[in-house]
Write a structure and sequence with these properties.
heterodimer, A: about 240 residues, alpha/beta, about 40% helix, B: about 290 residues, mainly alpha, 2 strands
Chain lengths: ~240, ~290
C-alpha cells in the first residue's frame, strides 16, 4: 500500500474547479515530482493533502488513513510535513524559535528542543544563526529553515512547494541535495518544482499536471526523455 | 528586564515627591489604562485580531465586581473569581463563533459587542441603569496604597503579557498574525490559538475593570463607550514597536494627556487629537529613517 494515495480527487477553489479527477500515489521511501505550469493546480493539491482546502470529491489517504475528517494539525501528527511556497519563515522570530514552531503539535517541550538540536546538526548553517532573526537569513537559508521546521515533526511524507524558486543555482543545488539526504534517511518526498530537469533528476517518478488534470506520468527517466516534456518544461 | 525593574523602581518613588491625591489618582488611572492596553496588546499586537469593543471586557469586570460587592457586601477582592469566570465566559461566547471568520468581520462583531454590553448595562435594573452602581468598596484605604496596588498589579499584568509573548503559545500567536495559512500547515490550530489570545485579553481587561471600580467607587455605562475602546486601541497601535515597552509609554500618554489639557476645557480633545497625529507622524518618521 502506498504511503500517500489520491484517488479521483476534485478540488474547487472559489467556485472554480482547480483540480479534476486527480489520482496519484507516493510509495514509502520514494521521491515523486509533481510538475506543471503556473496555475496547473500543484499547490492546491498540496494544500488539500495538508487539509488546508477540502476536496469536493475523491479520497486522500496517508498511511491508509482517510484524511477527510482530520484537521490540519491532526494531519501533521499523522506524518505529513508541508513546506509552503515562498519559504514563509517568520522573520520576527529567531531561527531557533522558528524551528520550535515546527514542533507545535508535540506536547513535550524537551523533546522539541532535542529535535531542534538534531535538525541543527543536519543543517549547521542554521546552528550558527540560531539566535538571529530569521529575517536576516538569505533566501536560501530561509528555505533551509523552512524545511528544517517541517522536519521537527518527523514527517513520513515531506511535501515541498517550489523549494528552489528564486534561489541562485548553487543554493538550489544545496537545497535539492538536502532533499536527497532527507529522503535517504527514510522520508518520502512529494516535490513540486518549476525546475523540471532538476526535479526529475532527483525523483524516481513524476506526474505532470496541466490545468488541473493529470497529463503524462511515469518514471523519471522516461519523462526526461519524453519529447513533450522536453518541449513544455525542459526547453 | 533590568530596564523594566529600573522603570518600576522609578515610578514607585512617585509618592516620595508628592502625596497629592490628584497626582496619585492620575497615575493610578494611567496604570489601569496601561493594563488595559497590555490586554489588548495580546489580542491585537501578538495575535493580530482587530478588536473594536475591548471596553466591553473592562465593563464586564467592573460591573461583575461592583454588583457582587454592593449586593452581597463582599470585599472587592472576594469578587475576583467571579470576574475571572465572567470574562472568560464572555471571551468564549464572543470569540467562539466569530474567530472562525476573517479578521475584518471580527472587527465589526466586536464593535457591536461593545455597544451591546454598554446598552445592556444602561437598560438593566441590576446594573443600575444609566446611573450605574455606586458605593463600591475600595481595594485600598488611601490614594498612596491604591497607587502601589495599581503599580504592582499592572507590573504583573505586563510581565505576564510579555512572558506569554515569548512562550510556545506566544510564538504561535505571532506566526498566526504573520501568516495564518503557513501556521495552519505547520500544525497550529489557528482557531484555538486565536481564541486563547482573545480570552486572555478579556481577562486582562476584566481585571483592569476591578481596579477601575475600586478607584471610582461608582461606575456607569458612560465609562465604557466606543471612545474608550478606541483610545485603548490607539495606545496599542501608537506604541506597538517590537516589544511591550512602547505600549506602556503610549498608554500612559493617551491616559494622561487629556487630563493635562484640562486647562483648555473647550479645546481639550481637539488638542489631544492634534497631539496624537503629531506623535504618530514623528514616530513614523523615526521608523522610516531607522
Amino acid at each position: 500500500m502506498p504511503l500517500l494515495e489520491l484517488s479521483g480527487v476534485d478540488i474547487s477553489y472559489g467556485g472554480v474547479r482547480a483540480v479534476r479527477d486527480l489520482s496519484l500515489h507516493v510509495g514509502d521511501g520514494e521521491i515523486v515530482a509533481l510538475l506543471g505550469a503556473n496555475g496547473a493546480g500543484k499547490s492546491t493539491t498540496l494544500a488539500a493533502i495538508s487539509g488546508l482546502v477540502r476536496p469536493s470529491a475523491g479520497r486522500i489517504s496517508l498511511g491508509g488513513t482517510d484524511l477527510a475528517a482530520l484537521s490540519p494539525a491532526a494531519i501533521v501528527r499523522l506524518g505529513a510535513g508541508h513546506v509552503p511556497e515562498g519559504r514563509r519563515v517568520f522573520g520576527g522570530l529567531t531561527v531557533r524559535e522558528n524551528l520550535q514552531l515546527g514542533g507545535y503539535v508535540l506536547a513535550d517541550e524537551r523533546e522539541v528542543n532535542r529535535r531542534v538540536a538534531a535538525v541543527c546538526e543536519l543543517l549547521p548553517v542554521l546552528a550558527e544563526r540560531r539566535a538571529q532573526n530569521a529575517a536576516t537569513l538569505s533566501g536560501g537559508e530561509q528555505q533551509l529553515l523552512a524545511i528544517g521546521r517541517a522536519l521537527i515533526a518527523r514527517p513520513r511524507l515531506l511535501m515541498l512547494d517550489e523549494p528552489t524558486m528564486g534561489l541562485a543555482p548553487r543554493m538550489a543545488r544545496t537545497v535539492l541535495g538536502l532533499v536527497k539526504e532527507i529522503n535517504q534517511q527514510g522520508t518520502s518526498v512529494l516535490l513540486v518544482e518549476q525546475n523540471a530537469r532538476a526535479a526529475l533528476g532527483l525523483a524516481q517518478r513524476g506526474y505532470v499536471l496541466s490545468r488541473g488534470r493529470l497529463g503524462l506520468h511515469g518514471d523519471a527517466a522516461g519523462l526526461r526523455a519524453d519529447r513533450r516534456v522536453i518541449e513544455a518544461y525542459l526547453g | 528586564m533590568k530596564r523594566a525593574l529600573l522603570a518600576f523602581a522609578a515610578v514607585a518613588t512617585l509618592p516620595v515627591f508628592t502625596i497629592s491625591p490628584y497626582v496619585l489618582n492620575m497615575a493610578a488611572t494611567a496604570g489601569i489604562f496601561v493594563m488595559l492596553a497590555a490586554g489588548l496588546y495580546i489580542v491585537v499586537g501578538y495575535c493580530g485580531l482587530l478588536d473594536l469593543g475591548f471596553a466591553a471586557f473592562f465593563a464586564i469586570g467592573a460591573y461583575t465586581s461592583g454588583i457582587l460587592a454592593t449586593r452581597f457586601e463582599l470585599p472587592l477582592v472576594a469578587t475576583l473569581p467571579a470576574v475571572l469566570c465572567a470574562t472568560v465566559l464572555a471571551g468564549i461566547v464572543i470569540g467562539g463563533p466569530t474567530l472562525r471568520l476573517r479578521s475584518d468581520y471580527l472587527a465589526i462583531v466586536t464593535l457591536g459587542f461593545g455597544e451591546i454590553v454598554r446598552v445592556t448595562a444602561t437598560r438593566l435594573e441590576i446594573t443600575g441603569g444609566p446611573t450605574g452602581i455606586y458605593g463600591i468598596p475600595p481595594l485600598a484605604a488611601d490614594p498612596v496604597a491604591f497607587f502601589y496596588l495599581v503599580l504592582v498589579v499592572t507590573a504583573l499584568a505586563l510581565t505576564g503579557a510579555a512572558r506569554l509573548g515569548r512562550s510556545k503559545l506566544g510564538r504561535a500567536w505571532q506566526y498566526v498574525r504573520e501568516d495564518e495559512d503557513a501556521a495552519e500547515a505547520t500544525g497550529i490550530s489557528t482557531y484555538r490559538v486565536k481564541l486563547a489570545a482573545y480570552v486572555l485579553g478579556s481577562v486582562w481587561g476584566g481585571l483592569a475593570g476591578v481596579l477601575f471600580a475600586s478607584q471610582l467607587s461608582a461606575i456607569s455605562p458612560a465609562s465604557f463607550t466606543f471612545l474608550q475602546s478606541a483610545l485603548v486601541l490607539v495606545a496599542v497601535v501608537l506604541g506597538a514597536a517590537r516589544n511591550i515597552t512602547g505600549v506602556i509609554l503610549a498608554a500612559a500618554f493617551v491616559a494622561v494627556t487629556p487630563e493635562l489639557l484640562r486647562a483648555f476645557p473647550d479645546a481639550r480633545y481637539f488638542l489631544f487629537g492634534v497631539l496624537l497625529v503629531v506623535v504618530m507622524l514623528l514616530r513614523h518618521r523615526r521608523r522610516a529613517t531607522a
